[in-house]
Amino acid sequence: MEEVIKVNHLNKQIGTKKVLHDISFTVSKGECIALIGPNGAGKTTLFSCLLGDYSTEKTMITVLKDSPRSKKLKDKVSVLYQENIIQKRMKVKELISFYRLIYNNPLSLQEVDNILRFSELQKNQFTEKLSGGQKRLLSFLLAVIGNPQIIFLDEPTAGMDTNIRQHFWKVISLLKKQGKTIIYSSHYIEEVEHTADRVLLLNKGQLIRDTTPYALRSEKEEKVFSIPIKYVNLVRDLTYIYDVELKKDNICFTTQNPQKVWDIIYPQVDLADIEMNNITLLKKIFTVTEDK
């Protein structure tokens, strides 16, 4: 497949802090990639490097075989930032007309309507009167109205209700079919599992996984147990449990050896008092707040 982004041993230091460590990956045309990781993982910095907001060595990043800071990419690469940036004292239709005039090959009015699904009344409203979800959808439209080849989305569905979010991902699916390349960050596990072709997992500035949602789900699962606190002595000295949390009424812990734990607690603890849940690596990632 055609390569549109190449990251080659990327390192980035901001001040005295090294934020990204030897990151390498490629992105092919038409891929939808989720960039995920815990707070402080380096996702925002990586986004900034790919967009050319941060300087990097010439050999470290190419976007469409060019430097990410090249002016040639202006109409080919677009970004939806986490915060909506919309002119307040303009009507929706006026803002759309203005943005369509900026680009050489903008979306048609029909394509605009297919994305927004706004009524004529809504299009005649000032943008500040829109709901949070509608503003987010409008921000997305303005990010893609120039018909870019590569689209970066930072927490794209933040503020959207369920219906708008479902519509948004249908639009993304259509853009993928048109050959658009999409890289997004998200803290919604369902979005990543159902929409991403690949997952790039960052942790402490390092790329620790370049994989697929299916492969992540298939990794060895951990089991999270919860039993009444009065049985704490049953598991206190076990070497194969971790993330132990003592609460007022119960003790919670994680293990990769659930059968051993079960053999110990089941004969002495009532079945109704035992809780056990699965936690995959992907779920574990999403228990940590995303960095801003």
What does this structure look like?
The chain is α/β, with parallel strands linked by helices and 292 residues long. The protein has two domains: 3-217, P-loop containing nucleotide triphosphate hydrolases (Rossmann fold, 3-Layer(aba) Sandwich); 221-285, 2-Layer Sandwich (Alpha-Beta Plaits). 31% of the residues lie in helices and 28% in strands. The protein has eleven helices and 13 strands. It has helices at 43-50, 92-102, 109-116, 120-123, 132-144, 162-177, 189-195, 213-218, 232-235, 258-265, 281-285, and strands at 3-14, 17-28, 32-36, 61-63, 77-80, 150-154, 181-185, 198-203, 206-211, 222-228, 241-246, 250-255, 275-279. The strands form three sheets. Strands 5-6-7-3-8-9 form a six-stranded mixed sheet. A hairpin with a 2-residue loop joins strand 1 and strand 2. The radius of gyration is 23 Å and the shape is globular. The relative contact order is 0.15. The model has no long low-confidence stretch (mean pLDDT 92). Keywords: ATP-binding, Nucleotide-binding, Transport. It holds the Pfam family ABC_tran. GO terms for molecular function: ATP binding; ATP hydrolysis activity.
